[in-house]
Amino acid sequence: MKILTLNLKRQYFNEILAGTKTHEYRDLFPENNDKFIRYILNGKEYKVNEIPSEEDEPGEITPVPIKYDAIKFLTGAYKGTRPYIIVEELSANILIPKDDQGNEIIIYDEASDIEFIMAQMDYTLGRILEKSEGIS
C-alpha distances in angstroms, 63 versus 13, 42, 43, 49? Predict the structure, then answer.
């Protein structure tokens, strides 16, 4: 089983347990997108830092979600045994918001001197597959 592990605030953790939170959203940044997406170019799959240049391999690059079977949500302090739940992943979609003119929103990160398109992962959550002890 392929499992994505994510940290979550206790409030949202409890909402998933109660069945009231059925989606989990994660913003995509250059430093974290290898955990969430791959890029398809001419039928081949690449990580973001592996994509060939346009000169070496011309073609359209398409982002696709990495398929996970489940998501393991951890909550609590980053020490000792942390409460967790493992939840079935029903679907994963990449959301790309648009500005008022319908254009993709470009973000510039000064620290890394990188421009990237604003994007977010949307995971549809299914049934709880496993819980750590002490969680009802």
Answer: 28, 12, 12, 13
Residue pair 71/4 in contact (Cβ under 8 Å)? The answer is yes
CB 65 within 8 A of CB 102: no
Stretch (H or E) spanning 125:
strand 119-131
Place of tokens 């994007």: 119
Question: Which pLDDT score, from 0 to 100, does residue 136 have?
Answer: 62
| Integer CA distances (angstroms), 124 to 44, 57, 68, 74, 113, in order | 26, 34, 11, 17, 33
- The reported pLDDT for the residue numbered 30 is 85
**Facing residues of 39 across strands?**
46, 63
pLDDT at 117 over 70: yes
* 43 φ/ψ sector (left φ>0, alpha ψ -120 to 50, else beta): left
Six-digit token string for 134: 């002490």
* Helix residue spans in 48-126 (DSSP H): none
What's the pLDDT at 110? Answer: 83
Q: pLDDT per residue over 30-47, tens digit each?
A: 888 899 999 999 999 999
